Amino acid sequence: MNFKELGLCPEILQAIEDLGYEDATPIQIKAIPAILKGRDMVGSAQTGTGKTAAFALPALHRLAKPGGCRALALAPTRELAIQIEENFRKYGKYLGLKMALLYGGVKYGKQLEELGNKPDIIVATPGRLLDHIQQGNLSLGKIEILILDEVDRMLDMGFVEDVTKIINKTPRSRQTLLFSATIPDAVVRLSKWALDNPAEAKIDIKISAAETVSHALYPVPAIQKFDLLVALLNNIKFESLIIFFQTRRGTDKISHWLTEHGQDVRVLHSDLKQRDRMSALQDFKDGKVKILSATDVASRGLDISNVTHVINYDVPQHAEDYIHRIGRTGRARTEGEAFTLCKPEELPLVESVEKLLGNPLPRKFVDDFAYREAPESLVPTGAVVSKKRNRSFGKQVSFGSRKRR
Ligand code: AMP
Prior knowledge:
This protein is α/β, with parallel strands linked by helices and 405 residues long. It has 15 helices and 13 strands.
């Protein structure tokens, strides 16, 4: 389906044409008509499905002309807020609407300037938005469209009170659009409270990752994890690779060791200054550095294209995070590989991931690596995978055997 058929105005259609989008994606086909009609919406879709355009295009269409602060998009992380704002700018470039981007960790100057220009659209993270409201820099009294993006993440990060406060400061007559990769009970509760008879658009795991990512689990004794990582990096041909870690400390420590082993690595986690986060991400996106070490801050929402490999140094604590992490690779139909290093203690976490996927992760071993214990016995295959495949995730994740690069 093309965008004209969805009923978007000419200025937006021109911007979409400039970007070279040809057809609307499934989430856009489902969401745009309902949002244009003014309906509230619960969209369950992850990044990579085109979900930002699914809410930004109809929101821009409904705002149409400059007229004061009428739309607010909330995002859990600064990086995601930046990305959403960039998209609003691109899609709305022929509409003359003004934007303000508000997030923490940076000075207030530029943000105050943007607020002083009477923006039509605010994109913000919750904490800094509340700071601005408390300081009297803006009011949400005229908000017509409220967008809550990556809500599951927002709640995981402990923003529930802030988000509730913010929602309470917007008019009840608003249109509310809630997007979340997963819909756990807390998200259901929030949507029941904040939304009015919402339309629903559900898109399961991003198809491109499913079709093009191959997965492998590398069992290894705990003490040899770092050595195995080095061996893997030496064995594979990668253009751009993200290594995910559970903790900020782990990210720093292992990245430091990798640097000592001659690898060029940049680090992305939430303890860093915003300036450093942005420059790490930019260098990685520009291809100046091939390896990005990150905590889950980077696993959600970020549209980083052309990542050829993802390595999970730790098995994710929450099975859903596995999906989000591997979602960084195999985008836009390029092939990707997702490797997970696993010490025996992490077996229960592997089992949760396999349950969610509905498939065992194929075990692989690095040839010529001097394992201290026979790796075959460390993490048994597919211990508790249910026979019934998980309908929301497993059916679209392919595990076909592929030749090694
Ligand atoms: P998102 O899921 O919003 O992060 O979007 C993922 C990527 O898909 C972004 O780089 C968008 O620019 C791109 N995109 C969104 N909608 C379309 C479309 N209809 N056709 C082609 N690319 C798109």
